[in-house]
Amino acid sequence: MTNPTTDPTTHPRTTTTATPPLLRAEGLRVTFPGRHGDPPARAVDGVDLDIGPGEIVALVGESGCGKTTLARALLGLVPPTAGRIAFDGAPLGRSTRALRAYRKRAQLVLQDPSGSLNPRHTVYDAVAEGLRIHGHGGDERAAVAEALARAGLRPPERFFPRYPHELSGGQRQRVVIAGALVLGPELLVADEPVASLDASVRGEILALLLRLRTELGLAALVVTHDLGLAWNIADRVAVMYLGRIVETGEVEQVLTAPRHPYTQALLSVLPEATGAPVVLAGEPPDPSRIPSGCRFHARCQILASGEAERAGVADACRTRDLEILGGTSASQVACHWARARADAAKTEASGAG
């Protein structure tokens, strides 16, 4: 599962340390009012997540699983219904002043650079916008030039007068990244940062994000549906399904030995996968009507095949909810069947000993 432009063996992963997290979410929930008398939609339904300084975490899942809502809540763009967010050890305030200060330190990079950039603004104005909003007191021209150069647009002055339509897709995404970098943030939240780009350009943008981590110590939350991208860039991966993280851990561990049936299904359709792809039945349930028990059980290939029954957990899968996974880097899974297998392996090992 490698990409020649961003082979994971060519960049160091951040190792787990006792360093306090830069960003921490605890018990985070975001609900939206239901339509036409429907119950509220539980878009984020209990999430713990830590991101350490200089760490890249990939948040992975199908469209509609809640990952973009979670990312926006972590940036203060969507108010949480419940739970707590802390940045650099301090609770995130909800006042305009507190959020303004926070957004200098945590910046969003959107999926579609064409939609992110005003077609009437030059590259210079697009990058300088954040400085003007936050009242930058230094040399604006020098700050814009430095941000563009860090984003790989050199010489930066050549790009100052250009408009978005005069740039390639990759160049437009670099302008968006420069607009985030100009404020000197500590955290980037990148929502599908390469989904709209040609395959030939994706590796360049991923390599740029890795270089920014190395040079500036930037942490990043990369929101994606692509597990291959997570392999190439992330230190840790969190797999999300129907508003909750169902498996998390170091990226090599999760993606080479996935324990949750949902993670296994996502990996089975990658080009590098061996064996038959797992075709999940139906669509994810409506977040206003989350099923009882494991929220994945209605589509679970393990339950459908009878393996969960043989493991003695089929009833639990259908009726018993699983607790929220912790936000740390430890390998965790929210699956009755996976835990039963682990328990059986421990019992077998102790008996053999």
UniProtKB/TrEMBL annotation:
SUPFAM superfamilies: P-loop containing nucleoside triphosphate hydrolases (SSF52540). SMART domains: AAA. Keywords: ATP-binding, Nucleotide-binding, Transport. Residues 23-267 form the ABC transporter domain. It comes from the Bacteria. GO terms for biological process: peptide transport; transmembrane transport. GO terms for molecular function: ATP binding; ATP hydrolysis activity. Pfam families: ABC_tran, oligo_HPY. Belongs to the ABC transporter superfamily. NCBIfam families: oligo_HPY. This is Peptide ABC transporter ATP-binding protein.
